């Protein structure tokens, strides 16, 4: 079917109407091929006409000459439970010739689900009237999947919201940059955002959207807060929602879960970039041992064609919690260290406890066991557990950068080095080779340590080291999580340094996939040494090495007890007591090797 425009009359309209249809199923789509060519060929639009509804709903538009070619249009219709028809309108601009044509109109997945003879099992729902058998996850999701409405009967209104009458029991966050907007019909900007809501499939229905035009700026955030819920078992609480991300400059939509009211929570799901002009359903399974809340965060892209839509949010298997979430304390406890040493009788080879003036042996400083009453002997040491939250390096330092400090700040900026990072601070092009979330909190707000390969050159190394560790025990080991993903990833090494001797304890090179991987390095008994993490840069910036949750486990030295060894223990030659299970296990548990003697 085509229209040949060769008259000079302005604003002529050609209209093609479909037959009437009674209803459609929830997955219905309409597709067709169109041709719109000519210097002033004019606009065309497809409209949905619903019985009893005066205002038509625009489903598709083309505004201008699209070249001498056939193009495909795919339109999401969804569940339309009432009689309707389509109108294809073509508007002429006059003056010049143009040709518009349409071909190969196709409806897909538009029938209601067929009746079933049986519908057994906990994962299915048998529709009351149509006798269709549908997935139980489709129950009470604000969509009539059965065709008779029985899957949407007896639903708790506190667990769902279609935004037709406001925000229900959801709230706008007051600590974000701006708010979600409730609207119906198309968003104000063309070529971005929905043309209709998801609930009704027409311009009459309401939905929420994120406006990306001025005065909004890149990475401005709008956050929507759910009601509070009771703890849920392993995935028994299900969150369903429909989102719309259409536009060249659409940025990001994220969903978080939190159990503390003054935190951002941890990331459950996110989607980035243009997902075409359609509503998309997403299902998330939620587990929590504490009362929790869901946060839906939209982030503005770098331009005005970045509107994001949200509609038909619902929960299944969840219970509303009427209390309040606790707040996490932002204060930190610690012992203040006096600037001057207290009165003491310690020798130069002894350490002075800062608060009391007690003397301990120097080898007891930084040995993972606090010997001073105020724990000051472990205060300037590496921490046993480091998760890098609160931007804390836990005593780890970079010797090379300390040597370059002073007038070399510009040089340091471009040096291949270790630094703190998090997923929330990444640029879009970094997301392919840097961790999107940390390992501690599994959120984009959590911190980790990484060597940024956008600095430096091929083969450059970056070292981060502990202060000197005085002494460790026989079963001491380092456990850490590493992230090495990217086409040109270099390597990561764990080194042992004592005096002027450095040896390699562990190494990994090449891409290890887009996930955090656990590593374990045995140290055993060592004295007066440092542990060093060394990253080596690859041939390009496409590969950052990251580490998180570094733990020194069982590293405190053996302690000689005043009590005799029990019947379940072995007395070492140096009077230490160790479990008998540790005998002859190829580990020097006694520190003098007497537990591995052939004479035992």
UniProtKB/TrEMBL annotation:
Q: Which cysteines are joined by disulfide bonds?
A: 140-155, 366-381, 565-577, 572-590
Q: From which source organism is this entry?
A: Mohoua ochrocephala
UniProt keywords (A-Z) are: Disulfide bond, Repeat
Against SMART domains, the record matches this protein to: LDLa (SM00192), MAM (SM00137)
Query: Domain of life of the organism in this record?
Result: Eukaryota
Q: Which CDD domains match?
A: LDLa (cd00112), MAM (cd06263)
Database matches in SUPFAM superfamilies: Concanavalin A-like lectins/glucanases, LDL receptor-like module
Name under which the protein is recorded: MALR1 protein
């Amino acid at each position: 079917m085509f229209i040949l425009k060769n008259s000079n009359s302005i604003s002529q309209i050609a209209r093609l109407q479909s037959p009437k249809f009674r209803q459609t199923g929830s997955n219905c789509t309409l597709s067709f091929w169109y041709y719109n060519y000519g210097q002033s060929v004019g606009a065309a639009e497809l409209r949905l006409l619903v019985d009893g509804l005066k205002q038509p709903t625009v489903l598709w538009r083309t505004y201008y000459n699209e070249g001498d070619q056939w193009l495909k249009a795919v339109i999401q219709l969804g569940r339309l439970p009432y009689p309707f028809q389509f109108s294809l309108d073509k508007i002429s601009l006059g003056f010049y010739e143009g040709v518009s044509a349409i071909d190969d109109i196709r409806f897909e997945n538009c029938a209601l689900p067929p009746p079933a003879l049986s519908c057994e099992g906990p994962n299915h729902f048998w529709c009351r009237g149509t006798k269709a058998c549908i997935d139980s996850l489709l129950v009470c999701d604000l969509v009539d999947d059965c065709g008779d409405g029985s899957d949407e009967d007896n639903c708790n209104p506190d667990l769902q919201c279609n935004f037709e009458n406001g925000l229900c029991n959801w709230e706008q966050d007051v600590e974000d940059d701006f708010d979600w907007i409730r609207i119906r019909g198309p968003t104000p900007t063309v070529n971005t955002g929905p043309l209709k809501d998801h609930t009704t499939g027409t311009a009459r229905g309401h939905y929420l959207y994120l406006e990306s035009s001025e005065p909004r700026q890149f990475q401005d955030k709008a956050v929507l807060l759910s009601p509070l819920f009771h703890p849920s078992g392993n995935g028994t609480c299900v969150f369903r929602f429909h989102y719309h991300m259409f536009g060249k400059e659409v940025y990001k939509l994220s969903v978080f879960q939190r159990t503390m009211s003054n935190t951002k929570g941890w990331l459950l799901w996110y989607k980035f970039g243009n997902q075409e002009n359609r509503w998309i359903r997403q299902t998330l399974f939620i587990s929590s041992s504490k009362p929790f809340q869901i946060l839906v965060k939209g982030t503005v892209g770098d331009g005005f064609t970045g509107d994001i839509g949200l509609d038909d949010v619902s929960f299944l298997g969840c219970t509303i919690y009427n209390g309040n979430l606790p707040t996490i304390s932002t204060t930190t406890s610690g012992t203040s260290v006096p600037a001057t040493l207290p009165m003491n009788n310690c020798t130069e080879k002894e350490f002075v406890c800062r608060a009391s003036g007690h003397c301990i042996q120097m080898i007891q400083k930084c040995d993972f066991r606090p010997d001073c009453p105020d724990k000051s002997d472990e205060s300037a040491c590496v921490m046993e557990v480091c998760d890098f939250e609160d931007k804390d390096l836990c005593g780890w330092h970079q010797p090379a950068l300390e040597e370059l400090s002073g007038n070399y700040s510009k040089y340091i900026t471009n040096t291949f080095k270790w630094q703190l990072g998090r997923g929330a601070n990444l640029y879009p092009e970094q997301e392919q080779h840097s961790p999107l979330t940390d390992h501690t909190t599994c959120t984009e707000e959590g911190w980790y340590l990484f060597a940024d390969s956008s600095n430096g050159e091929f083969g450059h190394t970056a070292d981060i080291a502990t202060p000197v560790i005085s002494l460790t025990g026989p079963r001491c080991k380092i456990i850490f999580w590493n992230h090495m993903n990217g086409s040109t990833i270099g390597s990561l090494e764990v080194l042992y340094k004592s005096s002027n001797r450095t040896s390699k304890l562990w190494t990994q090179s090449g891409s290890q996939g887009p996930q955090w991987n656990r590593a374990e390095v045995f140290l055993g008994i060592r004295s007066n040494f440092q542990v060093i993490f060394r990253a080596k840069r690859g041939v390009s910036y496409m590969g950052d090495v990251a580490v998180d949750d570094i733990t020194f486990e069982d590293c405190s030295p053996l302690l000689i007890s005043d009590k005799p060894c029990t019947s379940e223990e072995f007395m070492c030659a140096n009077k230490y007591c160790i479990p008998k299970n540790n005998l002859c296990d190829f580990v020097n548990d006694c520190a003098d090797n007497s537990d591995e003697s052939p004479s035992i």
